[in-house]
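Hey all, sorry for the wall of text incoming. These are the two entities for the joint prediction.
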Amino acid sequence: MSPSSDALMLLKPDILTGPYATCDRRLARDAVRGVRAAYDRAVPRYEVDTSAAGVGWGLRNVDRKVAARSWYTLELTDRHGTLARLGDLCDGPELAGDGQVGTGQVAVALTGALGFRVRSRQRRVCTHRDFLGLYAHNTHFTRLAGDLRGYLVGQPVEVLLLTGDQELSSLHVAKELLRRVIRYPTTHYDALENMLHVADPGAPDWVYFDRSPDD
Amino acid sequence: MTGTVDLHDVPDRLVPREPRLGGCCVPVPDRRLTALTSSGPVLLGRHGGRSTTEFTASVVAELRHLLRVPARYHCAVLPTPPGTVQRAVALEDWAAGLTVRGEGDAAARWRSAVVARQGWPAVAARVDAPAVEAVGVVLRETSDPHVPVDGRTPDRWLAVDLSRTSAPLTQSGVDRLDVGFLCPSWLFGVPPGGTVLVLSERAVAAARLRHERLGDAGHFLPTLHALISTDGTAGMTDLILLAHAVRARVEAEPGSFEAAVQQRYALVAQWAAARAWADCAPRQAGGDLTAQIRTTLDPGVLRRIDAHLTGHHLGYDVVDDPGTGCLRLGLGDTVPVAEIERLLGLLDLLVHRLTAGRLS
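and here's what came out:
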């Protein structure tokens, strides 16, 4: 069974509520700079002093996944145009100025800059079935009954089905950099509260949310 | 051509939150695990010492009280599964001609152990053994209502595997047995792997004599004597979990455990009675702690049900064996009733979808 969308992204509870639901606009811009750096390997001037280290952790993880997974690539469809759009997002009005911006808004804006369009966006309370649909097949089952369930079940999530002619990996790269720069800028610690989920190619969780009504 | 079913076809209200609902699973409640943090700090990590010795003795004492073990009987919590006790019994002098009653896998394994003994002359030989009748019973696998009520006699030695039954709490005491043993998981909601062993006075004496007469070989054979004298007790983690579970049973209303099991069995039996493709077997004489549902389902359908339940972590070990056509559900009081209700509803949906509506 194949999904009807080109990508699945899930906004998890900690990007929708709590202290990380919004972030400093300077951090948001740094996160976009980090995504661009994953592709052009330039070293931009970051606005927040933790961002360089956060991007460093992120790039290390990205490179490790490129080496380990056949489908994970740093190729881009329309590389020139995509990098230009990332630059526009960083310098444009959506993230301009001081103060706070919604972290979920930053994530969705990044998907747009990469070339994806939101086909559907649904906010729902994560049910036990949703939880199993998301993780029954892609995490060690010992985590299913514990902290991961507490993190998700009964909490708000947003399910985004995306379309677009772009490498799926680009969303994984964006996810990685967003996590590192905004959520965990000072550590490589990979906590389960990690804001975003992007489905792997052909993953059961993608098919599940592609087909699953909110009940 | 049968239909298909995937997780997104299942309403959330039918998704079990507790997957340990099948016949080979017992949910260990959260409060048991909490016990490790409340009792563990003074015990875990210590090698011997007075406090651990006293704690172990207190666990056994409370267990003896709960199971009504006579003072002259030996009682121990072993760090090995019940199969080890079955094999040890088969090595005893009095068990040379052991007749094992039971129609299931455990009884078959026990019979194999008795046969294996014959292949080792030094062990097979009986030394001054009294001419006695020796009977082994796997209670959950026998439908004989007189076992073990008729009990031991001077001429009959009786060893009973009480695992997965409520008999230790509900039936006449272990004082009618020479060897009684059980996996505590089923009765107490603790992890499997250990065995509660009770030996009559004469079984202890015979085990000691057997051990001595085996000479050097006795040091290398897992005899009953070796199990109770040299192989030690269960690990401290298991003992802490068991201690709290036994205490909860002692403090509970008498009969509440069996009432909880009956409630769950009635729910399953009523559900099965309303379905032409399912039939719930009567509970065995010893009070089986699982419900066996015989079905007329095609083995292929059962395999797909098994794959669905296991693959999505919805229910482990519910399909007993696709070849036998049986489903098996846990009935112990650590299995929440609401979870059984969810699972039964889910089974309805799966059968309906996988048989393309022919059965529902």
